[in-house]
């Protein structure tokens, strides 16, 4: 019965959490009221630019910061004022924060020893965990004798070996180079599936968040701008901020009438919209052509500016009649027909479902 | 030429060491084996018995010096570690102010500071005189000319040399590492014992070295604050050298003291596990 209940409870709940600091005599709000439910076994990301409050939010879950207002719950239990050593969550720090005076084995065994786990069990669990993170045979190494990727895995093992209810990761891949980072992303996802623990992942790297997460909370200026799955956040950004922060996005603004937005000699389809509206279109959804396309699509004319060759695709900067600059990505497929050059007059078109009208919450 | 540059750059300091360290040491080593007197002059006789004589006559003071030096070092560690800890972790933006305050007494001469401690601790001085006047202390209470006064003076005078290296070591401890310990279920005590303390050991090692050695050899505190029963080896060396003009005995005592201290340091380093200490330092 207890097991059943636990499955129904959220792993982590934040309820109107606010964090205020006193800085030079002034109250600064780092987190301005965040309410989130993170489900058991979920890979959840807090995504946003530096200073958006994502790390502070995570540190309140870990217990390093006490919320000024609001409640933090772990599996239904209020832990708002519980110190970190009494919370059943573990953290992987940005700089790993490994114990420099201990070898790999002692680092990983630290939490179990603190909990007075029997020697035999410590030996077994540490050994198993080092196998999972592929560090078997390196037990006697010191952290500073290891590469960044290896230290990263020690940090992961040190946290996971305790089988916490949730694992908090604070930009854990930030210090690694691109290749290693991509490998570790897949590795992290594999480990998460294997151990079945809730992961809360803090990052400013949108591609990282999109790759790994079940759900993402996009944060800006101490608030959650949008909460949703990777596809939803990418395809249907809730605000101009989200649209701009996740990938590249074009913003078209104007006054719509009867579901059509007249723009610089063309028309953008915005079904069911009337009045002032801002529309986002992803650069890869737009087709670039020299002749005016037919059909029930959004069509706008423009002039090609910069053309940048980027390997798998070309990036075109197209200036519309009203001065708006639109970015278009065109795949370099073998049958690519379009060869628009700088100065060419072109037509841009995309199906109605790819222009997404957004709220103006953060539009100044 | 390029490969020689580092050596050339080091040359002045090597020469400095040679002229001002190796030469005087060699001269003193030679004096310690001579016999004679100040009027007729000294002659090299390889008289190793100088060492046996000196030790035989002054072993009490040598042992007392080590005892006082040790006591003062322990007192400095007990007082200094919390101070260093507090400045490093709770000092905030005022750290440099606190460090400056720590060094402020150095702007007054070492001897003068010790003498003013003498006034302070005098039987009928400002402190004890007043307390006795109020009847808070018995009339025959005294501190001056006791072990407490000398060890107290040593502790006071060398305390900053204990605090500074410990502070430097604690300052280098990454706060995230301490947080990691809390995160891994360590209580405050456990986090200190298993993480902060081991990481600060290089500082403790340096601090003990920088205080025990000069405190043991110091003549000023025993002279100013001690009585006839508190004479330390530094006083003996001073008297033999400057008053009795018995250079061989003074030199032999100096070398003996140096040898004892060096042996002590090696045992200490071994006991603490220098390898561990250095490893923690070189992260």
Automatic annotation (TrEMBL), chain A:
Q: Coiled-coil annotation: which residues?
A: none
Give UniProt keywords alphabetically.
Answer: ATP-binding, Cell membrane, Membrane, Nucleotide-binding, Translocase, Transport
Pfam families under this entry?
Answer: ABC_tran, TOBE_2
What is its quaternary makeup? Answer: The complex is composed of two ATP-binding proteins (PotA), two transmembrane proteins (PotB and PotC) and a solute-binding protein (PotD).
Note whether Zinc occurs among the keywords.
no
Q: Which CDD domains match?
A: ABC_PotA_N
Q: What is its EC number?
A: 7.6.2.11
**Designated name of the protein:** Spermidine/putrescine import ATP-binding protein PotA
**What positions does the domain ABC transporter occupy?**
12-246
Q: Which reaction does it catalyse?
A: ATP + H2O + polyamine-[polyamine-binding protein]Side 1 = ADP + phosphate + polyamineSide 2 + [polyamine-binding protein]Side 1
Judging by the UniProt lineage, the source's domain of life is Bacteria
Is Membrane set as a keyword in this record? yes
List the GO molecular function terms. ATP binding
Q: What is the purpose of this protein?
A: Part of the ABC transporter complex PotABCD involved in spermidine/putrescine import. Responsible for energy coupling to the transport system.
Recorded hits in InterPro entries, A to Z, give: AAA+_ATPase (IPR003593), ABC_SmlMolc_Importer (IPR050093), ABC_transporter-like_ATP-bd (IPR003439), ABC_transporter-like_CS (IPR017871), Mo/tungstate-bd_C_term_dom (IPR008995), P-loop_NTPase (IPR027417), PotA-like (IPR005893), PotA_ATP-bd (IPR017879)
Name the protein family: Belongs to the ABC transporter superfamily. Spermidine/putrescine importer (TC 3.A.1.11.1) family.
TrEMBL record, chain B:
Matching CDD domains, A to Z?
TM_PBP2
Q: Which organism is it from?
A: Nonomuraea roseoviolacea subsp. carminata
* Keywords (A to Z) from UniProt: Cell membrane, Membrane, Transmembrane, Transmembrane helix, Transport
Protein name from the UniProt record: Spermidine/putrescine transport system permease protein
Q: Which domain of life is it from?
A: Bacteria
Q: Belongs to which family?
A: Belongs to the binding-protein-dependent transport system permease family. CysTW subfamily.
Q: Fetch the Pfam families from UniProt.
A: BPD_transp_1
Q: How does it sit in the membrane?
A: Multi-pass membrane protein
- Compartment list: Cell membrane
- Grouped into one coarse class, the protein's main location is membrane
Ranges for domain ABC transmembrane type-1 = 62-268
TM ranges are 65-87, 99-121, 141-170, 191-213, 250-269
């Amino acid at each position: 019965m207890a097991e059943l209940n636990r499955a129904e409870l959220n792993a982590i709940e934040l309820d109107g959490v606010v964090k205020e600091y006193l800085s030079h005599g002034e109250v600064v709000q780092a987190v301005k009221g965040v309410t989130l439910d993170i489900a058991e076994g979920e890979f959840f990301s807090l995504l946003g630019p530096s200073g958006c409050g994502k790390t502070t939010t995570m540190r309140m879950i870990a217990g390093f910061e006490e919320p000024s207002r609001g409640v933090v719950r772990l599996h239904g239990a209020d832990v708002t004022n519980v110190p970190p050593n009494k919370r059943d969550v573990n953290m992987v720090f940005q700089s790993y924060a490994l114990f420099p005076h201990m070898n790999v084995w002692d680092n990983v065994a630290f939490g179990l020893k603190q909990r007075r786990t029997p020697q035999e069990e410590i030996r077994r669990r540490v050994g198993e965990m080092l196998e999972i993170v592929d560090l078997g045979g390196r037990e006697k190494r010191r952290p500073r004798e290891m590469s960044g990727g290896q230290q990263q895995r020690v940090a992961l093992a040190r946290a996971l070996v305790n089988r916490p209810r949730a694992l908090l990761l604070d930009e854990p891949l930030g210090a690694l180079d691109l290749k290693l980072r991509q490998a570790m992303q897949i590795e992290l996802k594999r480990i998460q599936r294997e151990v079945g623990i809730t992961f809360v992942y803090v990052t400013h790297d949108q591609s990282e968040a999109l790759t790994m997460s079940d759900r993402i909370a996009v944060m800006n200026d101490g608030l959650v701008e949008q909460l949703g799955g990777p596809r939803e956040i990418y395809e249907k950004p809730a605000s101009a901020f989200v649209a701009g922060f996740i990938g590249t996005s074009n913003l078209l603004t104007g006054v719509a009438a009867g579901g059509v937005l007249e723009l610089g000699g063309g028309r953008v389809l915005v079904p069911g919209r009337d009045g002032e509206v801002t529309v986002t279109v992803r650069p890869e959804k737009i087709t670039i052509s020299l002749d005016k396309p037919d059909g029930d699509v959004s069509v706008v004319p423009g002039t090609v500016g910069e053309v940048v060759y980027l390997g798998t695709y070309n990036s075109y900067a197209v200036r519309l009649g009203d001065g708006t600059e639109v970015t278009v990505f065109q795949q370099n497929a073998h049958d690519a027909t379009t060869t628009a050059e700088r100065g060419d007059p072109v037509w841009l078109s995309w199906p109605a479902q790819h222009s997404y009208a957004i709220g103006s919450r953060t539009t100044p | 030429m390029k490969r020689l540059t580092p050596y050339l750059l080091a040359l002045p300091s090597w020469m400095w060491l040679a002229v001002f360290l190796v030469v005087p040491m060699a001269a003193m080593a030679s004096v310690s084996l001579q016999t004679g007197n100040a009027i007729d002059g000294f002659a090299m006789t390889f008289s190793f018995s100088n060492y046996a004589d000196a030790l035989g006559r002054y072993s009490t003071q040598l042992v007392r010096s080590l005892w006082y030096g040790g006591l003062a070092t322990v007192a400095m560690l007990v007082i200094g570690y919390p101070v260093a800890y507090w400045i490093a972790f709770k000092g905030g933006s005022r750290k440099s102010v606190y460090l400056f305050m720590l060094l402020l007494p150095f702007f007054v001469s070492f001897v003068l500071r010790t003498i003013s401690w003498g006034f302070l601790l005098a039987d009928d001085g400002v402190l004890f005189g007043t307390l006795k006047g109020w009847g808070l202390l018995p009339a025959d209470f005294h501190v001056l000319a006791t072990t407490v006064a000398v060890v107290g003076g040593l502790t006071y005078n060398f305390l900053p040399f204990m605090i500074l290296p410990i502070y430097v070591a604690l300052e280098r401890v990454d706060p995230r590492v301490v947080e990691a310990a809390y995160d891994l279920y360590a209580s405050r005590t456990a986090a200190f014992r298993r993480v902060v303390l081991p990481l600060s050991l290089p500082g403790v090692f340096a601090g003990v070295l920088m205080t025990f050695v000069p405190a043991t050899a110091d003549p000023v505190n025993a002279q100013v604050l001690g009585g006839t029963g508190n004479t330390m080896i530094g006083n003996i060396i001073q008297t033999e050298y400057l008053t009795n003009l018995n250079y061989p005995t003074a030199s032999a005592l100096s070398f003996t003291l140096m040898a004892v201290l060096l042996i002590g340091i090696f045992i200490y380093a071994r006991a603490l596990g220098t390898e561990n200490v250095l490893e923690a330092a070189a992260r």
